[in-house]
């Protein structure tokens, strides 16, 4: 974990604050990133300052020449109005004299320039203030909207109109009567979402906790968007605010006794509530995550063991999109806020193995402040002890180091997803992960490392393109996880879905409503799998074996898809590859005949099926964008396999001459052959595509590395797939020694008939002539019906008096002459009855040993 620290005291330029750094306190972080802070001089005067996030400069806003304690403060977008809530601590038992009968004063100050001060509230209860920052153009707003949150459990909105006088002087219009309205009341908990301008709050109805959300818009209107029951225990005497400025966190013991509850959302329509009840014992912590967009909750119980006194006793949820973190005194539990594309405690909340739990004296824990810290909007964290503001990020280098060192499969799984989801410099990350995988290829027993890496990396590469990707594409190779995670117990329960209070949705709310509809009607079939591709592939294999021809339109579509994927992949390849992949050229005529080889059929079929799948379920996305997403996704699958093989090729320093058969295998070739076999195993069970040239290279290395009986066993069981390119090279490279003849014959008899006939023409050997002759005779006589024949034969055409052969050749000649166009051997004009006769005689001679 890394942090960018806003140490505002390093930038203060006000001379009177030279000796007052100890009193500096961050009060609020506005939507535009500007930080509002306060500090006192040696006379007790309170100074308000603003740190501009864009310019990195400080600006003095206002000074109260009284010794006051600031509860809350907010500045409007134009920096013309300052709202502040203050109290004066009692001294020597005397009552606060801010205003008779009050302890808290809420003021609205004109600060452009400093001018009038209006009292909004003077009450005994504490008040918090927050200006709204609507989504509008950069021009000044004629009306500002200010929220007042009262300790008496109500929220009001003030509408403040401003006008310009005497040039640039900004003053409040009709300051004597500011319109206001009640937004919420009788609540026990409230959270402000600064970036999205939403108010979440909980009220109690018949002792039942109801979570509500109000969306504020650029005009003065606001709308209650949903209500959702929460199965948690809250007291109507309690009161807690989240993200309404920065709390004074000096009372550590009091802080540890409060419940912790946060709402997290993200742009894909996720809605997650993270909740931890009051903590009585620090030996274990229980916290729950309510995935409202999915309709279930997960409750985690974490055994902490002994308590380290130097670590704060508190729990905080941090929203690090696309992860969230739950931090407590002895460790971290990671939650993913998207399903995080949705909010979740796991990379995807269905499996606990996608959550990362760090415990003990861990480096990650040591990086966090050992004083109370407060989670603000997004990844901002306030260190209550030092007054420093942090932006917390995940440290990819440390995560990679942790991935190399950990020995638990569950941590390897979670770390793999965590690193890939960070999204910063994915090419470099993938290279480091591939290096680790190649060194730990058999390290994991609960899942296949190559499988998980390919599926997860492909998913996260396309995830930012659109929402709902987690419903439509696989994000993990696992469907279940039954292995216990030490010190962690998990209970999953169904929860009621939120009730939407509006009927017209835009943006986030449209996506949330879509997620709720999905959860309500439970459509598991939306998840894409390669089952259809598998069926189509088996259909093509059957056609190849039986000699049937596929539709020309269908095969042309396959060819077009292949060209698009290869072009897309090559366009994204920045460096030349050493491995001989993506270099095979498919014979166009062979594709038109329906002879689609396995190395290409899987992924070109996948292009069509995946595109149809996304077109059915991605509503509102242009067809052209979906087609490009499909090309990018499948190109990514192929590219990852190429990267794994490329890394192994470079590591073992292989050279192009390994593609020749007339040489012995080296130890490096054995290592690369092993990696390729593991890749094949990983892709086969999920029916994932392989790049063109993979099977050819795999077969060549297999011939080098395996004895004949093992080689044939690999071929017969589908581990090695005989491609035309590999077999052609084998026939040309190897001479006709007895050992090589046995190998060639064993290969030829295992080829599909059409490819086998083509390969036999390349081998000048009596055995190949015999095979050609047998195939030719089979084709001629498959529809032959015996006809009456003359008993007198013309013997002038025969040189031998071997009557059975003479009679047989005469029949073949008659059949050939009856329809020469039908029975001509394709691509081999000199195969005829005479060729068959010569081959038969040679074969008989060999059998008789003559």
Automatic annotation (TrEMBL):
Pfam families: GSAP-16. GO terms for cellular component: trans-Golgi network. Residues 638-745 form the Gamma-secretase-activating protein C-terminal domain. GO terms for biological process: positive regulation of amyloid-beta formation. InterPro entries: GSAP_C_dom, GSAP_fam. CDD domains: GSAP. This is Gamma-secretase-activating protein isoform X8.
């Amino acid at each position: 974990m890394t942090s960018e620290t806003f140490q505002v005291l390093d930038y203060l330029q006000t001379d009177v604050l030279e000796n007052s750094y100890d009193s500096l306190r961050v009060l609020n972080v506005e939507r535009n990133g500007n930080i509002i802070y306060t500090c006192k001089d040696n006379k007790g005067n309170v100074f308000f300052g603003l740190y501009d996030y864009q310019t990195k400069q400080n600006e003095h806003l206002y000074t109260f020449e009284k010794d006051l304690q600031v509860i809350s403060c907010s500045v409007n977008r134009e920096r013309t109005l300052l709202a502040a809530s203050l109290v004066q601590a009692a001294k020597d038992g005397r009552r606060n004299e801010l205003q008779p009968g009050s302890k808290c004063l809420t003021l609205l100050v004109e600060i452009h320039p400093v001018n009038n001060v209006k009292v909004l509230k003077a009450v005994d209860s504490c008040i918090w203030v927050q200006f709204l920052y609507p989504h509008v153009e950069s021009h000044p707003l004629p009306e500002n909207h200010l929220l007042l949150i009262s300790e008496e459990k109500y929220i009001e909105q003030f509408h403040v109109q401003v006008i310009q006088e005497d040039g640039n002087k900004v003053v409040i219009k009709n300051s004597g009567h500011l319109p206001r309205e009640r937004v919420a009341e009788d609540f026990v908990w409230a959270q402000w979402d600064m970036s999205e301008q939403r108010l979440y709050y909980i009220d109690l109805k018949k002792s039942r906790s109801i979570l509500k959300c109000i969306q504020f818009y650029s005009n003065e209107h606001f709308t209650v968007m949903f209500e959702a029951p929460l199965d948690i225990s809250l007291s109507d005497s309690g009161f807690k605010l989240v993200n309404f400025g920065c709390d004074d966190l000096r009372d550590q013991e009091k802080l540890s006794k409060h419940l912790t509850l946060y709402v997290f959302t993200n742009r894909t329509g996720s809605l997650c509530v993270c909740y931890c009840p009051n903590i009585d014992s620090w030996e274990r912590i229980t916290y729950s995550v309510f995935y409202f967009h999915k309709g279930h909750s997960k409750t985690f119980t974490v055994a902490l063991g002994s308590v380290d006194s130097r670590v704060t006793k508190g729990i905080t949820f941090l929203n690090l999109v696309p992860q969230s973190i739950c931090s407590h005194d002895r460790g971290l539990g990671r939650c993913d806020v998207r399903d995080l594309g949705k909010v979740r405690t796991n990379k995807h909340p269905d499996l606990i193995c996608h959550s990362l739990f760090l415990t003990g004296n861990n480096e990650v824990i040591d990086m966090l402040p050992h004083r109370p810290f407060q989670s603000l909007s997004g990844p901002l964290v306030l260190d209550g002890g030092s007054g420093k503001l942090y932006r917390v990020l995940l440290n990819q280098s440390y995560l990679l180091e942790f991935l190399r060192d950990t020995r638990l499969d569950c941590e390897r799984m979670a770390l793999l997803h965590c690193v890939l989801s960070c999204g910063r410099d994915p090419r470099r990350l993938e290279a480091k992960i591939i290096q680790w995988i190649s060194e730990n290829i058999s390290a994991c027993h609960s899942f296949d490392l190559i499988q998980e890496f390919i599926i997860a990396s492909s998913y996260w590469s396309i995830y930012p393109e659109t929402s709902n990707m987690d419903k439509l594409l696989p994000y993990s190779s696992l469907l279940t996880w039954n292995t216990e995670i030490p010190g962690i117990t998990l209970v999953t329960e169904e929860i009621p879905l939120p009730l939407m209070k509006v009927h017209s949705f835009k943006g986030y709310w449209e996506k949330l409503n879509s997620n709720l509809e999905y959860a309500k009607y439970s459509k598991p079939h939306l998840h894409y799998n390669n089952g259809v591709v598998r069926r189509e592939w088996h259909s093509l294999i059957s056609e190849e074996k039986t000699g049937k021809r596929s539709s020309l339109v269908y095969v042309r579509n396959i060819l077009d898809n292949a060209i698009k994927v290869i072009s897309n992949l090559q366009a994204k390849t920045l460096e030349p590859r050493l491995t001989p992949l993506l270099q095979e050229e498919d014979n166009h005529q062979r594709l038109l005949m329906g002879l689609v080889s396995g190395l290409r059929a899987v992924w070109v079929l996948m292009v069509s099926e995946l595109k149809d799948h996304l077109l059915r379920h991605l509503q509102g996305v242009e067809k052209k964008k979906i087609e490009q997403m499909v090309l990018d996704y499948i190109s990514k699958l192929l590219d990852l396999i190429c990267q794994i093989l490329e890394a192994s090729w470079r590591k073992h320093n292989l050279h192009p001459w390994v593609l020749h058969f007339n040489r012995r295998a080296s130890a490096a070739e054995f290592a690369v052959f092993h990696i390729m076999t593991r890749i094949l195993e990983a892709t086969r069970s999920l029916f994932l595509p392989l790049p063109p040239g993979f099977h050819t290279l795999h077969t060549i290395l297999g011939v080098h590395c395996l004895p004949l009986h093992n080689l044939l066993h690999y071929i017969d069981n589908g581990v090695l797939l005989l491609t035309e390119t590999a077999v052609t090279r084998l026939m040309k490279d190897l001479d006709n020694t007895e050992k090589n003849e046995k190998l060639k014959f064993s290969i030829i008899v295992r080829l599909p008939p059409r490819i086998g006939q083509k390969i036999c023409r390349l081998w000048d050997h009596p055995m190949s002539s015999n095979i050609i002759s047998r195939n030719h005779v089979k084709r001629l006589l498959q529809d032959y019906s015996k006809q009456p024949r003359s008993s007198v034969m013309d013997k002038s055409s025969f040189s031998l008096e071997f009557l059975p052969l003479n009679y047989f050749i005469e029949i073949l000649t008659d059949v050939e002459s009856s329809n020469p166009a039908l029975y001509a051997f394709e691509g081999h004009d000199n195969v005829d009855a005479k060729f068959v006769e010569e081959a038969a005689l040679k074969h008989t001679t060999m059998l008789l040993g003559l």
